Amino acid sequence: MSAPLPQKGLGPSMPVMPPQQQQQTHMPPGLAQPGVPPQGALREISPVYLCRIGQETVQDIVTRTMEIFQITRATQLPNGVTQSHAAYQDRFGKLQEHLRQLTLLFRKLRLLYERCVEMTPDLQESTAELVPYVGEESTPVRVEPCNPAVIQERQEVLEKVRQKNQEMKVLMDQMRNLLWDVNAMLTMRK
User: Fold this and answer.
1) What's the rounded Cα separation, in Å, for the pair 148 and 156?
2) What domain count does the chain have?
3) Belongs to which family (predicted)?
4) Domain span at 49
5) pTM above 0.70, yes or no
6) How many whole angstroms separate alpha carbon 177 and alpha carbon 151?
């Protein structure tokens, strides 16, 4: 579920929506928006639904961040060139609005994460299991014995790779020597 976009018509340079569009976006209080569960069902939301909302929130965060980068890229440095103060104020206002929305999206994402953690305590893994820290002993990974045919096939593939590597090394050496000879002949011509 994406965060609400800034309302139109708030700033001096922002257009106001026509009354027909404003009426279309307004829904009566009894009707729920599609994709949004009714108020009574908020307690029964599944973690999968929360993860989907979280994914959409992350997409909104990326979009807002890219818009911030586009605004900053389009801004010229004040290197003696006088620009309109109103243009700078407009860009600064847009930047502030994007940053405010970004902050709200991160808060929303944090709440979604905490709610998912509450709903799925049995699925939680410690961070040490996912990414081992430097200096800590990691738990050895249990390796199951392979089928002898698989081990034999692996050995054959490794031997083929060694042979190909050796052939490539020989070719690279020949190419290097050829280039040296060509460069030496070119310098002797001059």
Assistant:
1) 12
2) 2
3) Belongs to the Mediator complex subunit 30 family.
4) 1-21+42-125
5) no
6) 39
